[in-house]
Amino acid sequence: MVKTITQRPLDFVYFCFFLMHVPATLLVDLQALYPVSMTPKFIAALPEFYVKMSQDPLVGGAMGYFGRPENYVWFKSFLSLELVFQLPVFVLAMRGLLNGSKKIYLLMLIYAASTTTTTLPCLAVVLATPLTSPETLAAKMISVTYEQRLLLLSSYVPFFLIPLTMTVDMAFRILRLIQKGIDAEHTVKTR
């Protein structure tokens, strides 16, 4: 009998992660890709509010709030991946996790490894963004206060650590399944 999602703590964390990621993806992250004319004003206000509060150099840069958005084409390519690959995975993974399906493990491994890889450079940008000072203000450089950096890290670090944990976890789960298959095959051959 399959345990419920709440009886599988790590799966429950993954489920909640995917569940909260869907609105964040649709309402904030992907707005850099949406045509401005098709975005309702109240939805367009969400990334504006977020960037004013956090000075996020990535979202702000991709949205064109800080200089030229074409300088963030690399980040927009990550957002495109979020749209065409990650968003469908969120839905499929939530369904598979709810049903206790092991068939979802490989897709979750691919997602998690990809996300860990793309989030690391984002973290590097956040950490490399200079702290606001009279010099950065005079030079009109993108900068963050110490508090904004903490806010940004509290936003980006979980999106790195949870997929990193998922990568390792899913790799070991798949390894165990492969070992069971090898053991079963060996048992059949020795009969």
Automatic annotation (TrEMBL):
Pfam families: EBP (PF05241)
Keyword Transmembrane helix belongs to the record: yes
GO cellular component, one term: endoplasmic reticulum membrane
Organism name: Phlebiopsis gigantea (strain 11061_1 CR5-6)
Localisation: Endoplasmic reticulum membrane
Keyword Nucleotide-binding appears in the UniProt entry: no
Residues covered by the EXPERA domain: 10-167
Protein's name according to its UniProt entry: Efficient mitochondria targeting-associated protein 19
Family: Belongs to the TMEM97/sigma-2 receptor family.
InterPro entries assigned to the protein according to its UniProt record, in alphabetical order: EXPERA (IPR033118), Sigma-2_receptor-like (IPR051987), Sigma2_recept (IPR016964)
Keywords in alphabetical order: Endoplasmic reticulum, Membrane, Transmembrane, Transmembrane helix
Main location: endoplasmic reticulum
Residues passing through the membrane, by range: 12-34, 73-93, 105-130, 150-172
